[in-house]
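[Q] Does anyone have a clean structure-token version of this?
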Amino acid sequence: MITQNGLLNYIGTYKNLEEAQKIAKELIEIEEKRKNTMILELPIKRNEKGQAIIPIKTKNSIIYSNVSDETWHDLMRFSFRLDKNGYPIGNIDGKTITMHLYLFRKYKGEIPDGYVIDHWGNDESDSSLKKLNNDLRNLRAISKSQNSQNRIVSKNATSQYLGVSKKNNKWWAFIGYQKKSYYLGLYSTEIEAAKSYNSKAIELYGPDAMLNLF
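[A] Here you go.
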């Protein structure tokens, strides 16, 4: 017997266990190929911004993760939920793995020693939203030093730039280093504050510094 579409199906009587297991395996592989072919024929589901999206199960609802067009049909083969840290996670090839780690390894390569995967992007100040942005362009490998810098910055930023927030029609700059946050001053423009952040980041982090792009 094998399970198909949630039902237990009888597939025949065989001489021994090995023969039955072989037939069951072949039938499961055929069913998987059929299901994958059906998925490949599906139109990509998109949000109002035109981004490809994958459904993520939560306790009370369904939310969506942004992904690249080229990975959508691949990801639709699996079911995802949120882990305790807010990252989409699923069972892929018999292993539980986060969506971003699966995507990076398959489409970008192995992660260098001492590096972690970062959900990059100045467009989202909310870290929970960043964790749902799994577009390949949004995933990059960064050093642990860079990740520490990013963690402190992300929880405070309200600007499109790293280390910048708006306060009383002014822009103030700050940076994280060795688990502390440092105030860098108030500026008339957002870009001035971002440039101040860049200068201090280079001073503190050297070649590992994450910088704003203009």
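[Q] Thanks! Anything notable?
[A] Residues 2-40 form one domain.
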